[in-house]
Amino acid sequence: MLSRTRILALLALMVGVALVIAGILLPKLVSSEHVVPLELKATTLRLQDPQATVGPNYRAGEEGDITAPVARQFNISLGEPATEDQASARVGVSTYREDTEDDLKSLLDAQVFSFRVDRISGQAVDGAGKVADTPVVPSSEVAMEGYWAKLPATAERTTYDYFDVTLRTALPAEFNREETRTASDGTDMPVYVYRQEIEPRSVREQYQGIRNEITDPESGETAQLMHGGWREITVEPKSGLIVGVEEDIRDTYQLDGKEIQTLLAFHGRTYAEDELQMLQQAQSVGTDKNISTWRTILLAAGALVIVISLVLVFRRSNSRGAKNARRGEAEN
Fold it and tell me: Environment class of residue 158 by beta-carbon count within 10 Å: exposed (0-12), middle (13-18) or buried (19+)?
């Protein structure tokens, strides 16, 4: 019959083996990727241009351009139906003047996009989504591609295709530089800045819209809306979350390469308070899971328990063998 000490030693040996097995399998069972939670606290990113140029097509019944403070707001949310890898994304984009309290006069443009997104990479999946851009009119199909809600976790110094809301297509955003931002707790955080150059392109050729063309009052010909400029996207690299955006965009109506009228000239930067909230959130989402550290701890603890267990088992066996030997000599 086994002694109590030997039974405990054998049980400890089994525990040690289990710890070693857990350490070996941990990297396979637990992903080290940073999956974006569905319930993000900071979901709104606002850009402001205190001196934007607003054209007459955004001001019914008025002529000429005006200079006014304009903000562009992105509201990003993830929700059901969702899996561990994918989620439903909803991005609302609104552009509005800040110098008037009349909602009808202040709102220049509003669109809501719905699509599926990879929760780790941030890339649009399935290739299709829906957009609502006109009141009362049902949502229409839209091709969704590239990145928009976020960039991949553990973002690299490379080029990503980033979605442009006006053209409704993804264009290359190239890694430009690394900078440092200070979080609310005083921690200096590295961020990556990606720059997207947008050569002027016809919006009408991308899709049909109520402001995609006008009739030139002088020639009577149709002038197309052209969209161009540049954009810089600031990303916390561990989480891939976007913490800030700056863009200098000109949307103008052109005829034979000549500007006929301005729709909107907007050079906006993220509000400082929005960037601080986004940084804090990215800091939380991007916290390392320390998989390698826990793997080492499990392997070391398992090995130690196994060694101690074997020592106890064999010491007990040797002790019993020696005692039996002495008893046999005494009987002889």
Answer: exposed
